Fold:
Amino acid sequence: MTELTVMEQLQAEPKNFWKRVLIFLVILALVVWGSGSIHYPGMTEKGIGIASGIVHGIFHPNKELLFDLGDSGVPFLVLQTIAIAVLGTIFGAILAVPFSFLASTNIVPKPVAYFFRALILMIRTIPSMIWALVWIRVTGPGAFCGVVTQSVCSIGMISKMYITAIEDLDTGILESLDAAGCNTFQKVRVGILPQLSASFISTAIYRFDINLKDATTLGIVGAGGIGSPLVQSITYGRWSNVGAFLLALIILVLIIEYASTKIRNRLARGKAN
Amino acid sequence: MSEAGRKLPLFDQIIKPEHIVLNNGHEIDRPRSRIPLIIACLVLVIWVSLRATGFNLATIISRAGQLKVILGQIFHPNFAYFPKVVSPLIDTIKMSIVGTVVGCVIGLPLSILASSNINSNHPVLLFIRFILSLMRSIPTLIYASILTLVFDLGTFAGTIAIAFFTIGIVAKMLYESIETIDMKPYEAMTSFGASTLQAFWTACMPQILPTYIDDCLYCFELNVRASTILGYVGAGGLGVLIRERTGLRAYSDLGMVLLTLFIVVFLIDLLNDYIRSKIS
Structure:
């Protein structure tokens, strides 16, 4: 290869100035089209008061609520939110196993796999709030509804990740175990489980992270957790309560996010030593 | 363990490892399995969770018929309702486009401030990162419910809510990728006397641009899904219809809304996949 001078190298670069301008114009056009119907309504008369109320509330949370150990206190609501996410994730992760095996092209025939994939896509597309609105008619309002909702919703995303893990299975190991004379149970135990467990657990923990954030919003439709009292306090303008709930929510989410990243990194790299 | 000179993990200090003498005379310590402990913890956690949420399997089984009725109606969408879905749907898409673009544009400078290889001012770095995690930890729906009070009901509050949340995610994903880039071109630029911003723009921007666009598309996908329900708290878009229709128990209308949503989300995902394949 001949050495190029700086100038020659620069001229050899692909010329995509106009392409960039075009992309920029397309995005600009989309934004202009989009903002056409979004009118700035102006702040409501109470708007500034509300904004300052929230800021004040976060720095002066209702301490009574923050340390109230009863059913409407922050500690119990946080516990309930975590409980919803834990159960939703565990049930979802278990329910996702049959779905994902039935949707893997290397396990079942293609038509069956595509049918289950469509089903999984459908579960994933419907927002969890709508699942909650449907389930609430079955279970009645409360944390129980949240658990059922999250169990169903989690199937979608967890299955999607499981399928990738299952389709990446190294079948050579099974053949060698066969040659060594293992029975089916032993083949599953030492040939399949070790290949899947790390990514399955990692997926479940990731989903737990998502479910926890989701559990806070499900409360808005009445599915238990910290969401419903939070939104009620917002509507009634009890800013010190809002502050207490938001503070608990932020701390909870930050801790869980930190812990889940740590655990998943450990799982990905093996035992950290 | 003695040969490694390492301290035993707490678990092995409490439950002593199994001591095995091999046939060839070597002595090894085999740590006891953690599985029983993990299962015990899991059972305890599940038991506490079941108590805290009032889980009751019998309710689901006895009331499963109700679910069948609702799902049955949702799967028979009322196509005559479609004309009423179009305008809120376009609102939803507009909200997510504007919110995503605004969020991504604001997220870029914040991510530069939050990457440790560009910004050497540690307190500022930590402060920006803290603000970003705060922004991410509050769900879009909570933003929306506060903002609808501050700015009145409607799409404006929804757009701002989406933008807020997007800033948090985009900036985080971006500073993580900025920290893994090759810094040599940047150092070369600064040694020529370029300012931090000039050096970043010419040396780092080309490296992170594909990831940035990818992150923006990912956020757009997230936001389309999120914005459909924002209307539930009054922030405009499809959520308004969803709230109204479920309130009236008009589930076949809801089915129509969901069908449209399903198709639109699917098309947007396809479009994004196409753009991604073009970039890479």
